[in-house]
Amino acid sequence: MNIFRLVGDLSHLLAIFVLLLKIWKSRSCAGVSGKSQILFALVFITRYLDLFTNFISVYNSLMKVIFIASTVATVYLMYIKFKATYDSNHDTFRIEFLVVPVGGLAFLVNHDFTPLEILWTFSIYLESVAILPQLFMISKTGEAETITSHYLFALGSYRALYLLNWIYRYYFEGYFDLIAVVAGCVQTILYCDFFYLYITKVMWGKKLSLPA
Amino acid sequence: YLDIPEKDEL
């Protein structure tokens, strides 16, 4: 474990709980893409299938359980409890256009052609594009609540920190996973224009609004 | 099989 990965995991945890609390406190999921949350739930479920078979550490197992439980809880709040506030008119990204190609790529490009490894690879590829419905929804509504932009900033930062973690691990541990690194770069690049808007607007107390 | 990095990350 290194500081980049620890801060990255905590940033990820923060993002998930900022969103969960926003929905719970405001009893509304306006401006939040339920489709992205479904994709994130799928990412965690397919990635953590080894939860009971591959024990790494208490921290690792605990975080896996928390990530799965909190993301499933978010999907539950959005589609069941606060369904009336779900903005389906703006959450229109066709996620089958993400899941199908990502599924095909996981079959073609992976470390080992076994079910668990293909599902892990599917999860890594899917995570890199899972935020697209959310970014698409913001581009359609033209703006995002400040709390939602904090959520996105923490979520985008987590994988950027993981890139630093992989640089650290390459030099100090000789650890290198090309699939995770390439997908992590794609994932972080997708946030670049959001990061620009966040730093130039939200940090100065302005609301995040995309140029019309 | 040996060349797969261990899955010790989240």
From TrEMBL, chain A:
Membrane topology of the entry: Multi-pass membrane protein
Q: Which residues cross the membrane?
A: 62-80, 92-110, 122-139, 178-199
In its UniProt record, which GO terms are filed under biological process? Answer: protein retention in ER lumen; protein transport; vesicle-mediated transport
Location relative to the cell: Endoplasmic reticulum membrane
The cross-references to Pfam families, in alphabetical order and at most eight, read:
ER_lumen_recept
Its chief place of residence is: endoplasmic reticulum
User: Which GO molecular-function terms appear in the entry?
Assistant: ER retention sequence binding
Q: Say yes or no: keyword Endoplasmic reticulum present.
A: yes
Q: InterPro entries of this UniProt entry?
A: ER_ret_rcpt (IPR000133)
Tell me if Transport is a UniProt keyword of this record: yes
* Keywords in alphabetical order: Endoplasmic reticulum, ER-Golgi transport, Membrane, Protein transport, Receptor, Transmembrane, Transmembrane helix, Transport
GO cellular component term, pick one: endoplasmic reticulum membrane
What the record says about family reads: Belongs to the ERD2 family.
Name of the protein this chain belongs to = ER lumen protein-retaining receptor
Q: Which species does this protein come from?
A: Lingula anatina
